[in-house]
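@channel sequence for tomorrow's demo:
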Amino acid sequence: MSHPRLNSVTCSSPAGLHRVAYKEWGDPANPKVLVCVHGVTRVGDDFDDLARAMCDVYRVVCPDIVGRGRSGRLRDPNYYTVPQYVADMVTLIARVTAAAGAGREDVAWFGTSMGGLIGMALAALEGTPVSRLVLNDIGPVLDGAALQRIGDYIGQDVRFPSFAAGADFVKTVSSSFGPHSDEQWRKLAGDVLREGEDGQWERHYDLNLAQPFRAITPETAARDEAALWAAWDAIRCPTLLVRGEYSDLLSRDTAQQMTGRGPRPRLVELPGVGHAPTFVQPDQIAIARAFLIG
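structure tokens (generated this afternoon):
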């Protein structure tokens, strides 16, 4: 059984330096790297089960994107945006590939929701290090109502008198993840809750993540969507697109459109799940493993 290592890398934004923490599984000298990036309020610990299943073949690197979990916070929350996250991941990839003496930057990417948007933007760049891409329940069309729901959720300063109360909240707001065992729900909650100095439990991220969501207008949303489609059309690497059957962030129509352009991905729809599949279930992990290793 592989045990993870915790590490961090210093990254830069226009407002100064910040730390990006990451969890790493597998042989540290393995030049085959898989980067797994989480959703907007989640953390790299989400991928523990997937990493265990993949670390015999890949060195699996699971960052906490800045503003979440063990990573630092940005001095200016206006930079909690995909371009900043892409820049951070370029720095991280340079660190982990150099550490293995790989000689070249070449990584597979698994991105859930926001992590998929970061992966799309990075995979679209000329000279990208991304050679294989899994997008988990995300695409170039972002539903306005769903974004509003996410923005409202992110900005709530909710505190809980006990871990159990916090875990009940996480389970309720994450019901679209689909069926999970009690133990899996405890893990999903424990990864994103921390006990504050006052003994109250709180969510382990910077509430200022909500600021860029509040700034979204119909005009900026249309501009962002056009840029995302342009990025999608520029991707050339083998790509797997996963959609939850009941997803409100990636419609079936958009997923079908995506299969006909850009990297022309294989599409897998997971029954009984909304946004977003967690890839802690063995059948979901098997889908990712087959694509990433096959």
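heads up for whoever presents: The chain has a mean pLDDT of 94.
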